[in-house]
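RECORD TYPE: inverse folding
INPUT: structure tokens
STRUCTURE:
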């Protein structure tokens, strides 16, 4: 081969003038070789070696650039930077304009110089791409792409981190000999799901608010068809300078699982996490619309969907409103105040101060009626209300705060990311000498009954009724000085607040003793929840994730293997190898879950979308039930026990109201269903109320909506721990012998240990029953609530059926908590009879 190719290469002949040497002979032909002059031979050998080396190098380079497997990790970052010595012009909004292209090229070059000038980044830098500009003086939004070998990832991340911390730099660029003054260069790791190729303009929209007008945009196909699978859409919205944007999703109907389809809204034109206002999925009906505010004149909305299950999508309205510098006020006498733009989500980066004044002899009393702020991160409040030198954040029920004098300062702060609905508060004068006539005045301004002092319960809400007490004979003293009922000792609940009531307990054989002396059910060992409080129940756990021998306390995956993790179903993590713990999880979802904080008694419309009112035809509410599928309801067996005059077991006498909020108020959302069959548990005992459960089949399937949803059924191994807060709902009696409620009522209860309940109740509480309520009384289910749900919000925000309202000794009496049918004990029975 070599021979023939060289022989006919005219160029080679010309250059080297070696035409006569083109006949190469095999090295083995010694005779022929020896005939030549040694100098010529050396030259030929040198040339051959040189050519071979050259081809080898070319080959290596070709391999290196084209065929070598690239195991470097592609890393995408999004960010922005402020150019303080450049003026924003309208042309910069248009990415096709010359101005845009020119400045983009300059900034991209500057970014290249910057990133390639940083030691830990330079070798891995690929490119920077400017995606948009906005006012301020000019803010440039960009993507940064790097490729890093896995072994250099840590060093690279440190380089990026260090760079993002430098706030002001002067960058000189040679391009167009311009000099850009950069203040703030922000760079942030982009979530891989949210990365769209920067130049991809499909499903990418630029919108500008028109003064005095409302603009609209929708997800693709809305309202005629569901949004497409695998969408990556973005809407970059701008307002005029010195304005902010209000974005209102008038319709919002996406898949319920945010891992699959979701909308993200940013307070920026770059999809950077640090500027994320919120990420949403599921349904937001018009009565609970999602309304968001920006802090500046830009906003970015993205819609990302996965490959299946597409929903109608959304319609959004946006408008610009002038940015008001003023936030907070001096308010006198009485009145109300709220977070900026309430009930819209508060804008990021807000700081407001209110000075509240009342007449000199009085004190200021503030009541936060709604309080929905970002939850603390690692115990730190990023968004907060500061009052009496205390920062409050997260979701709080009604809070009363009393000032020290007749003037009080309330501050609100929101950081640059993650907002929520905010707060609404009222204030009024409070006279400590007369405000609680005949009642006990709490430190926080609440008035409570005198008999509630030193009763072991935090009736004031600030413990002031429980401080400085002499413990009675049926009480013991906690280490922190509070007096609590002796019955609460060793009941598995930290009633003292310092766990001292749960120390040095005698554990039963079903319990394990924690290193700190607390007793917990043995089944809670190695369930990845620190029930002991000192981690001793989660130590020395082998095989945590892998399969374990199946017992009644393990979760059985569909493939027959069992896992140790407690309550793994529908928690958003795939725990079973076959993923069966995350199947059939379209349940326990509340479109209205953000509407308000539980604390009052009347529910919000749609807040408990599985709640059913069972009416005897033309006779009103008799029992409650829960939706568990589009055909099946679960209720209590005792509701269908025949009486002398009424055959309650006859399905034809019942009608089920789904999506109902107010009794007899039937709107278009309410669905009335007839009952096809009633299946009462075969072991139900009318004497003891054991196995108090029944299934009702609807005559025709119901369509789920924002006010009709199924509740999740707990697996047989599910554990609702003692002390957990659960919610009972229903239209039952408001007092033991009082009238029934017209508006759906809700009450938060705590799960109480069966042993404790058995000390107090008239009949036995079996292992198929669950006790919940308060030994102090006052909050309970009652007649008419029977059959209704005891709902428990579990991980991932999903709601599970913990119990079914069953019985009690009267209603809301002291030391008489209510009794519920334990839902998890009947999981197999429900499956067997309904297929759900
Ligand atoms: C009932 O009669 C009833 N306090 C239901 C629950 C409770 C009491 C009575 C619990 O249906």
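DESIGNED SEQUENCE:
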């Amino acid at each position: 081969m070599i021979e023939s190719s060289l022989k006919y290469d005219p160029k080679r002949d010309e250059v080297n003038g070696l035409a006569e040497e083109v006949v190469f002979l095999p090295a083995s032909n010694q005779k022929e070789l020896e005939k030549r002059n040694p100098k010529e031979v050396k030259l030929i050998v040198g040339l051959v070696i040189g050519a071979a080396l050259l081809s080898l190098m070319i080959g290596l380079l070709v391999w290196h650039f084209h065929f070598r497997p690239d195991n470097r990790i592609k890393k995408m970052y999004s960010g922005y930077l402020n150019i303080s010595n450049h003026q924003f012009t309208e042309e910069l909004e248009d990415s096709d304009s010359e101005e845009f292209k020119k400045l983009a090229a300059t900034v991209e070059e500057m970014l290249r110089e910057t990133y390639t000038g940083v030691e830990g980044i330079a070798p891995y830098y690929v490119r920077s791409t400017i995606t948009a500009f906005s006012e301020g003086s000019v803010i440039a939004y960009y993507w940064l792409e790097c490729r890093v070998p896995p072994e250099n990832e840590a060093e690279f991340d440190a380089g990026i981190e260090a760079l993002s911390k430098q706030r002001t730099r002067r960058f000189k660029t040679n391009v167009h000999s311009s000099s850009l003054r950069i203040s703030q260069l922000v760079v942030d790791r982009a979530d891989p799901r949210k990365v769209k190729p920067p130049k991809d303009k499909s499903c990418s929209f630029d919108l500008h608010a028109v003064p005095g007008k409302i603009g609209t945009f929708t997800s693709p196909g809305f309202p005629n068809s569901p949004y497409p699978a695998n969408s990556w859409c973005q809407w970059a919205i701008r307002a005029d300078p010195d304005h902010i944007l209000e974005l209102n999703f008038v319709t919002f109907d996406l898949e319920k699982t945010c891992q699959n389809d979701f909308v993200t809204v940013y307070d920026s034109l770059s999809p950077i996490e640090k500027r994320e206002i919120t990420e949403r999925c599921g349904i937001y009906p018009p009565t609970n619309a999602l309304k968001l505010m920006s802090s500046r004149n830009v906003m970015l909305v993205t819609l990302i969907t996965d490959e299946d299950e597409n929903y109608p999508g959304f319609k959004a309205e946006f408008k610009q409103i002038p940015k008001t510098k003023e936030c907070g006020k001096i308010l006198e006498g009485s009145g109300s105040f709220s977070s900026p733009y309430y009930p819209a989500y508060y804008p990021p980066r807000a700081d407001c101060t209110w000075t509240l004044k009342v007449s000199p002899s009085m004190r200021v009393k503030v009541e936060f009626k709604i309080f929905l702020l970002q939850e603390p991160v690692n115990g730190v409040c990023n968004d907060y209300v500061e009052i009496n030198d205390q920062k409050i954040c997260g979701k709080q029920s009604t809070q009363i705060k009393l000032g020290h004098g007749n003037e009080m300062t309330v501050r609100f702060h929101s950081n640059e990311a993650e907002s929520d609905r905010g707060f609404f508060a009222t204030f009024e004068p409070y006279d400590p000498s007369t405000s609680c006539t005949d009642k006990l005045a709490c430190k926080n301004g609440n008035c409570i009954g005198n008999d509630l002092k030193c009763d072991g319960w935090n009736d004031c809400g600030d413990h002031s009724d429980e401080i400085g007490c002499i413990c009675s004979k049926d009480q013991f003293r906690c280490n922190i000085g509070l007096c609590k009922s002796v019955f609460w000792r060793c009941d598995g609940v930290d009633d003292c607040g310092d766990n001292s009531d749960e120390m040095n307990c005698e554990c039963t054989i079903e319990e394990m003793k924690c290193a700190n002396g607390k007793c917990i059910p043995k089944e809670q060992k190695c369930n990845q929840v620190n029930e002991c409080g000192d981690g001793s129940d989660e130590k020395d756990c082998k095989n945590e994730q892998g399969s374990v021998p199946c017992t009644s306390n393990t979760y059985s995956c569909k493939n027959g293997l069992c896992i140790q993790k407690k309550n793994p179903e529908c928690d958003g993590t795939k725990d079973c190898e076959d993923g069966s713990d995350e199947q059939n999880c379209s349940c326990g979802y509340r479109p209205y879950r953000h509407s308000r904080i539980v604390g009052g008694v009347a529910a919000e419309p749609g807040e408990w979308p599985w709640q059913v009112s069972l009416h005897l035809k033309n006779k009103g509410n008799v029992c409650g039930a829960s939706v568990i599928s589009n055909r099946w309801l679960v209720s209590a067996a005792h509701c269908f026990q025949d009486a002398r005059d009424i055959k309650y077991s006859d399905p034809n006498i019942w009608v089920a109201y789904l999506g109902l909020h107010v009794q007899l108020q039937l709107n278009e959302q309410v669905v009335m269903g007839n009952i096809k069959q009633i299946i009462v548990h075969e072991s139900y005992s009318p004497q003891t109320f054991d196995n108090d459960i029944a299934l009702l089949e609807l005559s025709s399937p119901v369509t789920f909506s924002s006010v009709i949803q199924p509740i999740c059924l707990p697996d047989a191994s599910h554990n609702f721990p003692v002390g957990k807060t659960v919610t009972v709902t229903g239209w039952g009696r408001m007092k033991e012998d009082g009238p029934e409620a017209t508006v759906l009522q809700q009450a938060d209860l705590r799960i109480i240990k069966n042993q404790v309940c058995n000390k107090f109740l008239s009949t036995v509480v079996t292992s198929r029953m669950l006790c919940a309520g308060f030994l102090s009384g006052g909050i309970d289910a009652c007649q008419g609530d029977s059959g209704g749900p005891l709902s428990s919000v579990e991980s991932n925000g999903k709601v599970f059926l913990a119990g079914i309202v069953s019985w009690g000794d009267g209603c809301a009496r002291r030391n008489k908590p209510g009794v519920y049918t334990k839902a998890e004990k009947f999981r197999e029975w429900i499956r067997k009879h309904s297929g759900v």
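NOTES: The helical segments are 2-7, 10-16, 30-34, 38-67, 98-116, 153-165, 754-760, 827-834.
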